[in-house]
Amino acid sequence: MRPAAKPLAVTFAAFAAGALLGACSPRRIPPLTTSELLEDRVMLDGVLMKCDAHPAESRDDVECQNARAAIAQLVKDPDPAVVAKRTAEFERARAERRRELDRIRAEQEAKAKVDPYTMPVVPPEGAASTAASAATTSTTAAPATPAAAPSPDGGTHPPDGGAAATPAAEPASAPKPVPPT
Fold it and tell me: Are 38 and 68 a contacting pair, CB within 8 Å?
């Protein structure tokens, strides 16, 4: 070979070796996006475990940043199926609680109701003693006396010409009249 061809052959061999080695190396996998991680929860858990295992190395890793963003979005916007399940459970528990409170309220109302048609016909204790005292007062009342007639001098005189009628003994329970002032 000629001396100038040798460096050309070495350069060509190095270029071919570099091309072969470059072609055989695996292609770099692009980092997962936030939407891809939200769709695949298992992949999200795997990326988070990798990020938690090496926190110093994963601080600037794009995949770890996307995983953290996906978790923040999951916390902010919960799964509609989970929300529907929780809402249905809440409504079921509320309906059960209302039925229980209605049952307790009905029991209390049943205890408090008074049926006047099933009550005994007995007067209250105070009414019996008042009726008895009214009967004794009406039998011992004094006969009515005529009212005093006014006299020409401005005073009042009894109608029988001056003889004052003695009042009958009043029962002790009757109040005494108060003279006008």
Answer: no
Output the CA torsion sign for 14, 20, 21, 22.
positive
63-100 burial by CB neighbour count: b if 16+ within 10 A, else e? Answer: bbebbbebeeeeeeeeeeeeeeeeeeeeeeeeeeeeee
**Using one digit for the tens of pLDDT, what is the confidence trace for 20-32?**
666 666 777 788 8
CA angle 125, 130, 131 (to 5 degrees): 100
Residue 70 and residue 37 in contact, taking contact as beta carbons nearer than 8 Å: yes
Tokens 């003889």 label which residue? 163
In DSSP terms, 150 is beta-bridged to: 156
**Two structure tokens written together for 16:** 């071919």
Closest CA to 32 of 43, 19, 16: 43
CA atoms in the 13 A half-sphere facing the CB of 177: 5
Reduced 3-state DSSP string for 22-53: HHHCCCCCCCCCHHHHHHCHHHHHHHHHHHHH
Torsion over CA: 45, 38, 36, 51 (sign)? negative
pLDDT beneath 70: ranges in the chain: 1-5, 18-25, 126-175
What is the reported pTM? 0.35
